[in-house]
Amino acid sequence: MQPVTIRDVARAAGVSSATASRVLSGNPATSAASRERVTAAAAELGFSPNAQARSLRSTRTDSIALLISDVRNPYFADLAHAVEQAARARGLVTFIGNANEDPAQQDEFLDAMMSRRVDGVLLVPQGLAGGGGAQVSPAVERLLSRDIPTVLVDRTLPAAAAPHVTAESAAAVHDAVASLAANGHRRIAFIGGPEHTSTAAERYGCFRAALADHGLDADEALHFHGDFRTASGAEGARWLLGLDDRPTAVVVADSPMAIGALAVWREAGVRIGVDLSVITFDDIEAFALHDPPLATISHDLTAMGRGAVDALATLMAGDPTGHTVLTSTFTGGASIGPART
Amino acid sequence: MQPVTIRDVARAAGVSSATASRVLSGNPATSAASRERVTAAAAELGFSPNAQARSLRSTRTDSIALLISDVRNPYFADLAHAVEQAARARGLVTFIGNANEDPAQQDEFLDAMMSRRVDGVLLVPQGLAGGGGAQVSPAVERLLSRDIPTVLVDRTLPAAAAPHVTAESAAAVHDAVASLAANGHRRIAFIGGPEHTSTAAERYGCFRAALADHGLDADEALHFHGDFRTASGAEGARWLLGLDDRPTAVVVADSPMAIGALAVWREAGVRIGVDLSVITFDDIEAFALHDPPLATISHDLTAMGRGAVDALATLMAGDPTGHTVLTSTFTGGASIGPART
DNA sequence: TTGTAAGCGTTATCAG
DNA sequence: CTGATAACGCTTACAA
């Protein structure tokens, strides 16, 4: 079936293509008569407007892009869901892209989106492994140097390059460490994320600060550098088991790593909350599977998603927007127990 | 900064826009000299072609759409990841859409994709709640009546409307039920998915067949109708606890429902593998959190994703394609124990 | 090998 | 309220 164009509709309705266009895009300057005939003809022919052509002219696409780090990470899945629902409420379609924690994949998706002229971009920026200067990947550079409304979500970028909606965990981490300290823990390990992401840095930074608050000193030897994925959590778990003078507690920086780590510890016969106290970031539904209940430091992803869409909408409307920082919540659980002495 | 057009590039390179276009789209009819100057100019100006305009002319977009039922369901997250990687290997960008198990959201996304003229569509079709005739939602109808290459993934549609890549679980379910039967279980409940999805029907159908294979009769009173989401799994768990002559074993039709159900059972003090034997569909990483290990019936999502992309690529190349049906695997676990007598 | 010019399907402008 | 007509940014005959 050949695609039906607006001209076909106009011809069938006996009007000009301009009138047909006006009717179909809800322009009030139309007569009831032509409105009726055009809509009828469009329905009859099964007309679906060519968005390419439309936005070539109008430069609006009513769509936004959301780039997340990892579709398989429940944290980002929740974020994607929240964004999608909030965007839908504003009449925007969301295209979700998966960077797979890889700047190259991020860039491909962003380029595709830019050339498709989405109205705005929500970006969880991927860190550059290089680590040297305050670099930003090429496509992100392009994104920002053009005037494409962009909001960073969850993670930020060095130069405060764009407005962002992120979470701040100081208070929750403080409470979490307080809970450990109250249980007599003094050697607390940290299984962290990749250093080149702002969240990994923020989470670890808050952890160190919290230690200091409780008169404990941060021991860099108790800091494992993971990559936010399951396998590295398992590695971190094994690393912990191999430490001399094994720590009695550990904080894990995200849920996939926690899943990987807990599986290893179970296999090794480590009793969580008894032999080892565990606190993990990112409360996900699947944690309900774990016994005992896990203590968590969590974010309100629905709020983050909605906040991000709000900020982006403001930006798309042409108004400047600032940063939003949400606070995290500490929820205790039986995975914290007294330090064995 | 105003968007950079191909004319800007051409001007900077001192050639016509036609030559610039030829260079940038890899047309061999170009001189080394202009090739060099054009690519330099494009890089210099940060040119990114307008995909709208390009495909308005050329009708290829090198992109595909993937519509999944629920981003937050790890099963679909895994599928999305697999598709995305396979598509990327073929130079295709994947736009992921989330239907949220809702035909209306599915249709919005599909319409947006059709009007953006993606080269192909991978669709996990949403069931119509009506249940009456063999209907298909309007946008899916449009999708199929036009000649847009489309492959159904995971779920099918009544009229074998399009080629599909799905999983078949008969053998795995047979083994699973055999394992229960060998442990003396005779009353086995089933917490199923929404009837209007083909997978729910297939999974339950195989379950009934497997019961028959083992001389057990299917009792419709032991069939709970869930909706593939966590909350309904919890409901199903409570339903099971309230049954007279409580079944000693249960099969759960997907992982989110299993998560919801297991949480309820734990809270009720039900010992999995002792008081109640459990087998669940869809092996996900987070199941590693559960003790004892869960018996599962699982699919190879990587194979499904790759198979779907292969089928779609074949279709996009103009060749007809058939159906692919993958087999499932049963993996035993300590969540199956002897029936208490 | 290159340039000119004609569209692709739609919407915006400007007269009527 | 409507109809010509000119773009939007790009590709592709067709000439040169």
TrEMBL record, chains A, B:
Listed GO MF terms: DNA-binding transcription factor activity; transcription cis-regulatory region binding
Chain ranges of the HTH lacI-type domain: 4-58
Entries under Pfam families matching the protein: LacI (PF00356), Peripla_BP_3 (PF13377)
CDD domains assigned to the protein according to its UniProt record, in alphabetical order: HTH_LacI, PBP1_LacI_sugar_binding-like
Stored InterPro entries: HTH_LacI, LacI/GalR-like_sensor, Lambda_DNA-bd_dom_sf, Peripla_BP_I
Entry keyword annotation includes Repressor: yes
PROSITE patterns: HTH_LACI_1, HTH_LACI_2
Transmembrane portions of the chain: none
Keywords: DNA-binding, Repressor, Transcription, Transcription regulation
PANTHER family: HTH-TYPE TRANSCRIPTIONAL REPRESSOR PURR-RELATED (PTHR30146:SF148), LACI-RELATED TRANSCRIPTIONAL REPRESSOR (PTHR30146)
Protein's UniProt name: LacI family transcriptional regulator
Organism: Zhihengliuella halotolerans
Lineage: Bacteria, Bacillati, Actinomycetota, Actinomycetes, Micrococcales
